[in-house]
Design goal:
This protein has 178 residues and is mostly helical. The chain contains six helices and no strands. α2 packs antiparallel against α3 and α5 runs antiparallel to α6. The radius of gyration is 20 Å and the shape is globular. The termini are far apart.
């Protein structure tokens, strides 16, 4: 999906203006809704689908806007540093250390919360799968279950990556926060 050193999907989504982001999420959500209705052997209720899609896209756009407002500091450069395993040449320890420590706290929290959230969603998804006899809901429940198992692995990997970057910061001159 582009050149190996080029921007990834997350960077491309972050660069979109919020109205365009809303439309992209609405289209993807609408297509997913149609696929789920078809897999569930139901007719597509366009009005209900439109309401679900607008609510879904609205919530995700609100979350994206909130995240963008909070994105002071190194921002997207942290993601690039975590993927590459190296800090940018001019990384200021006074700016990067607090941002990386926040990333680390989130990753440690994710080791506990990921399995709980995804496992809960898997269990909740089983109910409509049984009640509706829907293959689509069984697939969704299975996907949530897989994420519940895999999420601690990703969080642990992120903790190791952040620790590596924090170790690189220790080698650089700069003031350390008190």
């Amino acid at each position: 999906m582009g050149a190996p050193g080029g921007p990834g999907l997350q960077q491309r989504l972050d660069a979109l203006p919020l109205p365009v982001f809303f439309v992209v999420v609405a289209v993807v959500g609408g297509l997913a809704g149609v696929v789920l209705d078809v897999l569930g052997d139901r007719t597509v209720d366009v009005a209900a689908l439109a309401v679900r899609v607008v609510l879904f896209a609205g919530v995700l756009t609100w979350l994206a806007a909130r995240q963008r407002r909070r994105g002071a500091g190194p921002g997207p450069a942290i993601g690039a540093g975590l993927r590459s395993g190296t800090l940018p040449a001019g990384a200021d320890p006074a700016v990067w250390r607090p941002a990386l420590e926040q990333q680390r706290r989130g990753a440690v929290r994710g080791r506990r919360l990921g399995p709980a959230v995804f496992g809960g969603l898997a269990v909740v998804s089983v109910v409509p799968a049984i009640v509706l006899g829907s293959v689509g809901w069984w697939l969704i429940a299975a996907a949530w279950g897989v994420l519940a198992v895999l999420s601690p692995l990703g969080s642990t990997r992120n903790v190791r990556r952040v620790d590596g970057l924090l170790g690189q910061l220790g080698d650089r001159p700069g003031r350390r926060p008190g």
